[in-house]
Amino acid sequence: MLSPRWLRTHLARWVPEAVKAPFRARLFGYGATGLARGSIGPAGDVVECEIAGVRFRAPGVARDDLAYHLVDNADSIDEMHSVVRAARERGGLLMDVGAARGLISAVYCLAAEGATAVAYEPAPGQARDAEQLAEMNGVADRIRVRRAAVGTTPGTMRGREDALGLIDLTPADAAGTFDVEMTTLDEEAARLGTPAVVKIDVEGFELEVLRGATGLLRDHRPLLLLELHLDLLERRGVRITEVTALLDGFGYRFETSAGKPLPVRAVHGSPNAVLRVVAR
């Protein structure tokens, strides 16, 4: 049977735009959410924000990015609620892999007294923003920003910060590159302690991160908040079944960010570009 993703990828070019348009927003997470949307205050040097009862402050220049996560994108709103639930149900240490500007780390720490986070972000600009956000909200003593990428094996790679502020670890040439520390979740857990929650948002490198966490998954089974970049996995030649099979081997089952059971066949057959799921 042909999957919805195969149909979207291979047949969409033959479908008239008028037919595709109503579905496009849903494919990128702009459908309906059953959870309360967040709020963002008026534009200024600092904006006041709220999501799922957690209030925080952020630099005004990040307002558009915050609007995406808190107000506009339904899937991201559901994800932010799942972060707050995880903090209140589990507490303890969050390992935030692909932390970007540190929004999830900050919200996690603000949602529960004593919650801590390690934010893994190799892009220098985004790592600085994560440190600033933690400082602005009085949780700098509970968030450690690690300027490192997470993968299958520790070591060092050459990388470059692209126009979007993301790290490209496979640059075509050496211009503007710098050394990027690589680590694994198994190594980090051995050094820093066992996380209660792991969030992974690594733009199609999810399988590598999980392969570097097999000891952690086997022995401790932390709650996983996953952003599965299905389009990027497909582009890299990685099958989503490889990701789900690895997690199934450690007894993980999936649910939506809103907390509803999610059959593995729904993960495999999702037409979405990005699928946000919880694995427990």
Please explain how this structure is put together:
This protein has helices at 4-11, 17-27, 63-72, 74-89, 103-111, 124-136, 185-192, 206-211, 214-219, 230-235, 240-248, 264-268; strands at residues 39-40, 46-51, 54-59, 93-97, 116-120, 143-146, 148-150, 155-161, 167-168, 178-183, 197-200, 223-229, 254-256, 274-279. It has a 7-stranded mixed sheet with strand order 6-5-4-11-12-14-13. The chain has a 4-stranded mixed sheet with strand order 7-10-8-9. Strands 1-2-3 form a 3-stranded antiparallel sheet. The chain has a single domain (82-279), classed as 3-Layer(aba) Sandwich (Rossmann fold). It has 12 helices and 14 strands. A hairpin with a 5-residue loop joins strand 1 (39-40) and strand 2. Helix content is 38%, strand content 24%. The two termini are 29 Å apart. Residues 10-15 have low confidence and may be disordered. It is globular and about 45 Å long. With 280 residues, the protein is α/β, with parallel strands linked by helices.
Strand content: 15-25%
CATH superfamily (homologous) name: Vaccinia Virus protein VP39
Judged by helices, strands and strand pairing, the structural class is alpha/beta
**C-alpha end-to-end distance:** 29 Å
Calculate the mean pLDDT score and round it.
Answer: 90
Biggest β-sheet description: 7 strands, mixed
Q: What is the helix fraction of residues, given as a range?
A: 25-40%
* Order of helix and strand elements from N to C terminus: HHEEEHHEHEHEEEEEHEHHEHHEHE
